[in-house]
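Pair request: fold both.
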Amino acid sequence: MTAIAANARALNLILLLTFGLMLIEWLYVRLALHDAESHDLKETTTSIVTALGNQLIRPAASFMVALPLYAAYQYRAFEIPTTSIVALVVLFVLVDFTDYWFHRAAHRVRFMWASHAVHHSTTRFNLTAAVRLPWTGPLSGAVFFFVPLTLIGFHPLAVMAMVLLNLLYQFFLHTEHAPRLGPLEWLLNTPAHHRVHHASNESCLDKNFAGVFIIWDRLFGTFAQAPKDEKLRFGLVSPLPSQNPLTVNFHEWRKLIRDTWRARGLKARLRVLVGAP
């Protein structure tokens, strides 16, 4: 219980940090760069409301994530100590590798995309986009991608801590106002790479899924540079009808339920659920 309470305190601290950094970014682009287009009031408000909504449902969401991890941990093959620096570094890399495949699946499997589309629904690319995470996230099945790590022998709390670190790193990727990192761009995911992932240009779709290490995209054929002959456009290919938080969080689910209901037969309905968005 102490560890869980500490984890909750860490989440609250990170939330305060992210809101502070979002404010600093907005002040910088407005006062220093005189850029009034990088933020949209409605989008920013929706992103913040969505982030606050996630705090309200966090106890239930945490339970839905922790239960499968702890259940699998009872059948672990090894006892991997959480005090080992080497083990934690290995776990960090494995979590990032796992996150790459989850993220890739979230773009290719429709019932997973119904949640993930929320994150891609902003037409402005700034730090507020980073906190626009879906209320229905636990329904995407993300936790089951990480269950094998607990079956190997990594403690669930260690896995969740590394996922949190991974998400914290990704928060800083959501900005157009960051310098390139030179040779590190080949190894690490950077704002320049992540801008491509969020772009709706045809050449950018389903590219750069990495969380921390862009090397996964280079290895598995999903890496792309920003197109040189066109400006990046952000948001969904088919824009949302409004920025109402309920619309943003449930629009894709409504379409998914409608199409599943209209499909004839079990196989057709399964194709809707697990087919491409």
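--- second member of the pair ---
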Amino acid sequence: MNNDVVIIRGESVAEVAAALAGETEIFIVHDANVAATAASVAAVLPAVKAVIGIETSEERKTMETAVELCERLLEADASRRALVLAIGGGITTDIAGFSASMYKRGIRYANIPTTLLAQVDAAIGGKTGVNLRGYKNMLGAFHMPEFTFLAPDALDGLPAKEVRCGLAEMLKTFLIGDADAYAAAISLLSGTEKVSGLKDFAVRAAEIKAEIVRRDPLEHGERAVLNLGHTFGHAIEHCSGGKIAHGEAVGKGIILAAKISEGLGLAEKGLAARLKADFVSAGLDVECPFGIKELAAAMKKDKKDGKFVLLRGIGKPVVMEVSGDDLCKCTK
């Protein structure tokens, strides 16, 4: 199994054929919404044995769906030499990667992410998994993809909501790893929700995440900073019953994390207000509709065990535990 973080950049999804030239047994797993993209990729890969569409939603991101996918692979006679090629957003790459980690005790997979969120975050780094009783990614495995293929044309026609979700994750990455890229991205966005102009920023965000994962692949230390906004974000998703999408929830969670950072004296006053103004200018809704007590109940189930990623400033993350009293005090 591959243990490196491999990012391949191409201009078109069809160029993935070069990266898979030596494969003899490929099984495409795709989000039903990108069936046309999956078909175009299959057309340039003679080694494709089956094209499998799956329904992708947080409600269907379950062990049952992962097992169903394994059954489809079994029915298609996928051997241990097989490679699963996931085409879609983060839910698709999570489910496909997790299924690949289980099938015959682990087969290889690779990703072609088709959403901004997946290109900058979800499809990179080998975290795979499914939800359990509505709680995010409670079942999963570290299973590194052979590569993640980033193609600008995969983002063509992306709905505005999907763009916003990706923007939140992209800005998160810059907040923890590249203050200059953060400032440049905010300057470019200034209220637009179009993908045009963002593609180079998406690659930069992917590179930052890949660099962090290479240093800490199993999240024993530094990799935890990638969870900025996620402890709150997962709780917001849960409390909303899935009505607030992951990226949108992360954006709201980042502002709450900035408030706590100020309240604990880690960051200078004004950080939360600045980030809020920046995010709003980028077209993001950062208002959280839930109170801290409601969120705290959901956070008790979170696999990060009460740890939060906070900010000493832009580009200066810190991971620490925060008490319930401090959460209430700092988020008033």
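Observation on the second member. The radius of gyration is 19 Å.
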